[in-house]
Protein 1
Amino acid sequence: LLGYVIGMTAIQYVEPWLVSLGYIDAYHLAEQWFAQWGFWAILLAGFTPIPYKIFTIASGAAGMALVPFIIGSVIGRGMRFFLVAGLMQWGGTRLESTLHIWIDRMGWATLILLITGYLIFA
């Protein structure tokens, strides 16, 4: 939630720069994307190794609705944390050391599979 508030607060100071540098149209496009796809972006960022904090700040800056932001965050982060905790509980110390090596790769593979599935079925 702190990243969301940072983005929401910082945009008022950054927006004049976006206008002067000619990036305001790109910012407005990002606002539209977050309005349409923000929940899914936050959910995926919470579950995969994509830097989650960047998405929280961008969500606040783009004015994403707070309730979908919170729900997407809870689901995405919850799935990741419970998956890792469950695997460590099940596999013990041996799996824990292996998991630390492979967790990011598994996250990227999951993201690629989700995007591929979306592109195929959309």
Note: The radius of gyration is 17 Å.
Protein 2
Amino acid sequence: MRAIVLMAALLWHGQAVAWNRTGHWITAVVAHDALRQNDPAAFAAAVALLRQHPSAEDWLSWKTEFPQLDDSLILFMMASVFADDARRGKFESLDRPDWHYINYAIEPGKTTADIASSRALTGRLPDALTDNLALLRDGARPEAERALALSWVLHLVGDLHQPLHTTGLVNADFPTGDRGGNDVFVRDPQRAEFAVRLHALWDDAVGGPTRDMPRVVALAREWAASRAGALSPSSAADWLAESYRASVELGYRNGTLRYALLADVLPPPPEQSATAGAPSAQPGAPMTGPQPLRGTFAPPLPEGYVQAMRSFSEARVVQAGRRMAELLRQVSAGR
């Protein structure tokens, strides 16, 4: 029965692969607006190319629900999450799970927040971005292929700015790394009775998943007007180093963050729950669905952790959008 509960928990809390839809949409809106304002020709070229994407017709169907939004805005926003949407459905053959992250080791007591002192464990994020930029720049390739590459670029730049897409905690619990915080659990700061993966906590740092495009557009423009977010440094390697440092210092608190393991937060088998007098199914009855992970068995986050995470992440998604716009300007100019 324990195995059934374990499987249910894994299905319910599957490995996260990005900022959630809200985060990527905010980055896409900022990039869309900055590119349109600063380089109309590059903007027009990007929009024209996205219209050739294999999923463009599906994306523009959102216009029925949100007619007040420009086609170009919908195309940018939906392209930025195509890499996640492709995990299921008719474009599943285009799913590339290891493109979303690069886990550089965090080894408390052995390294600093400088990525140069670390080592890569798993993932292909920087290489995937390089490869898709090369395809995007290749005018001899079919437009549909270049449009697909553009959607990956829009997504991967966002992923590269999410700190927990760049690290893996290595210690006695995780000799090969904690998969970007997917294997460590903390108490959910909003629902203390539940535990949450550290990675998922960061994915939702700028807001939970939503389909309310107009609300996200308004939020993105509000944040873009109020948050600076420097363009420099301009290389993907530098963005990676920034995210690594943030993961070490903010995500894992320089190795001092307390966490629980999956075995700690799993609900007990029904037999144990019934014996303890807790509400449960009849002893021996099969589990009927995913079970929430128990927050009382996970340590709470340090004071000020959530505020620092949100403040950093809100500025970070805006910064990613501005950098994305500049990157697309360079691609359009042949650089």
Note: The chain is about 50% helix and 5% strand.
Protein 3
Amino acid sequence: MMDSIKRVMEEAQKLDVKLAVEPVYWHPLENVEAVLDVIDQVQDSEHLRLIFDASNLLEFPENTDQEKYWSQWLDKIGGYIDVMHIKDFTLDDNRAYVPARLGEGIIAYDTIIQWLRQNKPDMYLLREEMNPEFARADIAFLKKF
């Protein structure tokens, strides 16, 4: 993975563009330590940026203190985050992922909202997995940010 990231970073630097990577618990950037390792090896905060998606980082929601978990992530890599994907979900009886209205699923957004207000109030939030039936409720929820 690092070889690929370094090669892409060379091109990003030549073109003076940003490369944004998204940590995901089922990919190589599965935890904050792996992300910090990449940041440390690349040493280019101008061109290497992050996409933060809480839903893609929460492998065991029932066993996770989300306030502590999100604080850890945001405290350590928040300065690299340029955009957030915003979505919510529940798990069915088979632990399968089921998209949900924002604020009605598993993700505890309070810590994330607080961090955004204090650190990056103008950050772009991209609503993923949008269901038109949820639009009004989702917009009302996003206004909390």
Note: Residues 2-142 form a domain with the TIM Barrel fold (CATH 3.20.20.150).
Protein 4
Amino acid sequence: MKSRINKKKTYLIVSLVLILSLGIYKITFGSQSDPGTQGDPLTTVSYVQTKVNELKTYIDNKISEISSGNGETFKIVELKAGEQLIGNAGTEIILRAGTVKAIIGEYGGISDITQGKDLEAGEIISKNHLLIIPRDGRGAEVVTYGTFMVKGKYTVK
């Protein structure tokens, strides 16, 4: 009977030692991966610096795109009495000097952004107001003379 108990103790001790050693092995060597790979939770300084430099370059490019805009600036256009300034859709116009009337299209007038209203046919355009042409074919007809600041595509008739 004593040998039977000794065999059970021995079997139990060997089993526990085997289980513990397998557990220790798994903890120590089983979850290791190469440094710098996706499996490694720690990153190297060079990896972080590379990613930071990539991010800086990306941000700098985006900032330069935004600050350069579309590259278009206001142009000074001077017209005589009877001439017309016809803008394409999206053209911005500011009357700086002179007397000028609005030319509208079949779908409405010109957007006076400064005043917050729609200019009607023949209405006198106020100086220093930002006007936006919503559709092609609208613009301004000069009564006396006109000095404009224009951003966008336009034609003079």
Note: Strands lie at 75-80, 84-87, 92-103, 110-112, 117-119, 130-132, 138-151, 154-156.
